[in-house]
Specification:
Layout lengths: L1 E6 L5 E5 L4 H10 L7 E4 L5 H12 L3 E6 L2 E5 L10 H4 L9 H8 L1 E5 L12 H9 L3 E5 L2 E5 L9 E3 L5 H11 L5 E5 L5 H12 L3 E3 L5 E5 L8 E3 L4 H13 L3 E5 L7 H9 L3 E5 L2 E5 L10 E2 L11 H8 L6 E4 L9 H7 L4 E4 L2 E4 L9 E3 L3 H13 L3 E5 L2 H6 L3 H7 L3 E6 L1
Parallel strand pairs: 2-14, 3-13, 9-10, 17-18, 21-22
Antiparallel strand pairs: 1-22, 1-23, 3-5, 4-5, 6-8, 7-8, 10-12, 11-12, 14-16, 15-16, 18-20, 19-20
Helix pairs in contact: 1-2, 1-7, 4-6, 5-6, 6-7, 8-10, 8-12, 10-12
The structure holds uridine-diphosphate-N-acetylglucosamine.
Length: 421
Amino acid sequence: MAKLLVQKSGPLNGIVDISGAKNAVLPLMAAALLPEETCTIDDVPALQDVRVMEDILTSLGAKVEQKEPHVLEISVPGELANVADYELVKRMRASFLVMGPLLARTGSAKVHMPGGCTIGARPIDLHLKGFRALGAEIIMRDYSVEARAPRGGLVGASVYLDFPSVGATENIMMAAVLASGTTTIENAAEEPEIVDLANFLNKMGARVKGAGTDTVKIEGVRHLHGAYHTVIPDRIETGTFMLAAAITRGEVLIRNVVPDHIKPISAKLRECGVIVEVADEGMYVVADRKELTATDIKTLPYPGFPTDIQSPFMAFLATVKGPSTVIETVFENRFMHVAELNRMGADIKVSGDRALVKGGARLEGAQVIATDLRGGAAVVLAGLAAEGTTEVSEIYHIERGYENFVEKFRGLGANILRIND
Ligand code: UD1
């Protein structure tokens, strides 16, 4: 099993280029099942999750070709299968996103219950609520879900999401683009990845309005055509490198960033005394000028503070002066990294949905595990600030979602090495 060896490094210094967003590209790839013509997606990050989605699309009958290192061409040359392979689906929750496009295009879809990081119960009831509203019959059997459109196809409807779920908003949007009539998703997720998906769908000839607000309207069309689209930059990778600069008290220029997408992270880092400055060439994060102090964070759906940055931010908070409270409202089991950070000398106490971080810790290298994708990033960040060597195992979590993770950190002067045990 591969491991990461991380040693105290810093201050990190230099330039890092952000990759296309994992959470944007996965729904875009699923959406490429919708038109009868070829779609081209640019700035696709080379990630394990992208490979899994490629395999799922291929198993359904799509042709996925890598044209250049970051360019994928996706087409559906013949009939699409409507059953997604269990072995693939269980590896990644986002694989459930093929359900909407399959239902829209073939009239039925059978997908196993999805896997992914164990950060919470992660049900799919809101996805199914949307499909049902569009007229689909849902049959749950063992660990699979089957959806069948009515004889005349899906029919536009109003759907209220009890929680602004990112995946449910995306899946319902994709199911609705070929439905007859208009679909309205209320209390929709507003994440930038939703806007990216809407832009891609509209380039195919769909009529999606309001993406990025809490009400998304989709006027169904009969036919979609091929489209070319460039993935938005990864705001979570951006946040991770902002925190890498902060925790090592370094100075980093981050390029390929949409500053609007990371406003809550910038705001919170500024509250701690980190300088975040947007320039033409990218975003400067400077943390070497004064003593950094604590702040409280509370995760929320966008435009609130992203849950995916909660654990990396907590690693940083463990090192600054003063106590902070971190409240997690999006997932119910997203403090798994706390035990690992405490193993490295942090003093963090969890009580229900909140973690109390004492701050001012003198971190020590230890043997830790990447508990999940972002929790893995958190222990690596802590390792950069810890005395001695931190050995991170189960790094497949990290490799699911960060492109060239080690190379990018090394490029900034981090002392980090990937080894095969
Ligand atoms: C996406 C992101 C993930 C991020 C999360 C929240 C992708 C591939 N992943 O995940 O990185 O952490 O958004 O920003 O884009 N829920 C329900 N019923 C449902 C669906 C969700 O109760 O049918 C709940 C979940 O259990 C969770 C909350 O809603 O507590 C948020 O989940 P959701 O927004 O759906 O996250 P994902 O789309 O899975």
